[in-house]
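Hey,
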Amino acid sequence: MSLEMPARAGRVATGRLLELYRGMLRIRAFEERAAVLYRDGRIPGFVHLSVGQEATAVGACAALRVDDVITSTHRGHGHVLAKGLDVTAAFAELLGRETGACRGRGGSMHIADPAIGIFGANGIVGAGVPIAAGAAAAAQLRSKDRVAVAFFGDGATSTGAFHEGATLASSWRLPLVLLCENNQYSEFSVARAGADAMRRRAAAYDMDFVRVDGNDVEEVATAMAAVVAAVRAGGPPAFVEAVTFRVRGHYEGDPQRYRDSDVDAHWLARDPLDRTRARLAERGALDAELDAVAAEVDAEIDAAVAAAERASEPAPATLHHYVRAEPRTGPDERLLDPGAEPVRTSRAIRAALRHELRTDPDVLLAGIDVGAGGNVFGLTRGLAEEFPGRVRDTPIAETAIVGMGVGAAMAGLRPVVEIMYSDFLTVCLDQIVNQAAKLRYMTGGGVTVPLTIRTQFGAGRSSGAQHSQSLEALLAHVPGISVVMPSTPADAYGLLRAAIRDDSPVVVIEHRLLYERSGPGFADDHVVPLGRAAIRRPGSDVTVVSVSRMVHEALAAAERLVAEGIDAEVVDLRTVAPLDWETVLGSYARTNRMVIAHEAVTDFGIGAEIAARAADEGFWSFDAPIVRVGAPSVPAPYAPSLERAWLPGADEIVAAVRRCVGT
């Protein structure tokens, strides 16, 4: 047969079609072997197979370069193989081996290879859309002609992550292709979206829309080549619907009682491999030649499985590897500049952002009203004019804001994204907890996520229960996230600079009642390393551990206690996670008594963790009960009389110290 047959409109050259056929055979053989391995108990965890959807994966990825990015779904084996993932590394990952694509840390639902633009399959429906938007934003900012493609199922178009990611992509005109695999089923039910539902969704976001026969690899490849070329050239984001079919259950072992036999019969007659083989035969391919291709693929799969099964499992000693990136080497904390004028916290934060934007072209600042509006508190005023294109307003879409930051960080930027109030972190918690915090670990160290999330909190101004919460304990509980809470202008500056330079995600929580509080000035190169507490006041009788605003309340309490003959040492945590246990337990060893004070509710707060650790590792320092000070377990009230009763301060710290020292 001739493999150099020129392509006609709507079709690819025969030689190219043969390679696409080989790619589909590889995915089909991979999935069928994975099913056997799972059945035999050799693959742990869940497995979701893409049998029947090979043409969409292969046709779509045929239009992409190695440096283009894809995000995938829990049914992602086909996508990652089509993008170029090594078959042996893929099997090793499913088997939980150290030689796996993610060193056995990701598994089937999280398989990735960022080095070739595979930013990961994802166990959360729709979550990859904002991440792909972030990768596209990085390409746009760097003026690279790269594109990102987000694969998702039609069911994902009901999720907030999809809609927020699409909103951001449209607003910023990102080089992004949203590719919906409409495979007739949505988990455990027949898909019920209307025939034109995806077109309407695309229109709502002002995106170009293309519907293709997802079981025709030639049609998918031709259409995607045109779509990707248009987006790559600066066109608007595009929405492609590939109508295909999921042959197997939602997961292996699914009883599939929901299957529709008429739907199945219709689609099984349109198997993409059979159709492509028939088309190649029409163009002169002999059965023997096509059988030889299939035999080569089968041999490749056999060899890959054998190599994967020979590989070792990750050693238990590596359990703690890849949770955070190694700290970047840099200067130690700079001393305060005694000749500098006092500075307000708000200006210190702006100065830190300006410093990093000026010195590092990869820093991107994004959030609601951070550009033209200069932030709700005016903290970023003037930065958008000074750094055009790198200080960007976003839609009101917190999931998209953080997800974009995750994807942009994976693509090499150092994004600083702002969530206006810490309460709103709950709106985008998936992108923080399941994406930013875990992606380095789940890729076996294959990616870093140098993302900084700035937010603020604080009660005392009758902001009510949805604008006053202290959520640091929730974040500190998640491995992979650093959490900092500055109490002084110098620390607000130095910690923010350290956060932006760190290669792991950091949440910087500022207290809004401290924004206009002044403190000693500092030099431009002032940096406060993460994970290092400060002793604000030395003392000998009791250790008072505090953070953020409560540091000032603790210092005020300590001064009052002097008249009672009590000498309190005040420790400012500064970083909540990772916590500086050396400083905290060292102070406890000197004073033998401890009070922990934070603005958050006492129940299950960071004080509980500090108290437990102190009682364990500092048992021989235990001369009195460890006492915690915090708000009662009630949502922050609105009425000033109730808020005053709810909010802890110096009075509560004084009472706690008296109890601790037995006076």
